[in-house]
Amino acid sequence: xxxxxxxxxxxxxxxxxxxxxxxxxxxxxxxxxxxxxxxxxxxxxxxxxxxxxxxxxxxxxxxxxxxxxxxxxxxxxxxxxxxxxxxxxxxxxxxxxxxxxxxxxxxxxxxxxxxxxxxxxxxxxxxxxxxxxxxxxxxxxxxxxxxxxxxxxxxxxxxxxxxxxxxxxxxxxxxxxxxxxxxxxxxxxxxxxxxxxxxxxxxxxxxxxxxxxxxxxxxxxxxxxxxxxxxxxxxxxxxxxxxxxxxxxxxxxxxxxxxxxxxxxxxxxxxxxxxxxxxxxxxxxxxx
Length: 288
Hints:
- The chain is of the alpha/beta class.
- The chain contains nine helices and 13 strands.
- The protein starts with 5 loop residues before the first strand and ends in a 5-residue tail after the last helix.
């Protein structure tokens, strides 16, 4: 029997989010926060949470330490329905995010250590046994792509604010069957998506924020969807929710246009909460 499991490889973090009326100027001064809270972060954690919320069989491979924050991240994700496979790290990744007016400054307080060869080999085996794998931009992802054989299950990649020329993104792009990105790195998303498809993927999807999203198939077919109506509490993680919704709909047999609509709806789940997914508000009481 073919596997139904979705394997995701990439970051899960512990974040301190601080909302301000404006971002700090680069001079010594005192500034007061409007609100602050702690929660699970990381692009891979966001995708895994939304897929689990859609009843998908999802397994997240992520680097964590056995410290307080790493244990907390793992526990919250597992309670939310995500199968977590820990890649041992000497530290858990931690961020402090300063947010104001839709802009964000992320301070990396700690980062993960490089994965061992044994961990990468185990991840490679899991990917080879999956129905589809999402390989997020990360050191773990880089090591995995070096080890994966030529023939492998479909790989979905999230290029985020790719500008069309970043060398770091190239190994992820060239091995992908489907790529996602946002329009932050380009003024011409259609041309950017076309250039991506020329390097191997069969489908490219670009989110446009409040303007919705577009998709381009390898045969040149274009698709577009408007953003779904939403009450916006926080925009963090909306792109990950969108990708998760699109992936779940695709695996359920929907075509590209139908998957775009499902993805736009799923993005509203992230927009209506200060967390990556509303379930975290039920599991963790943020520090205000």
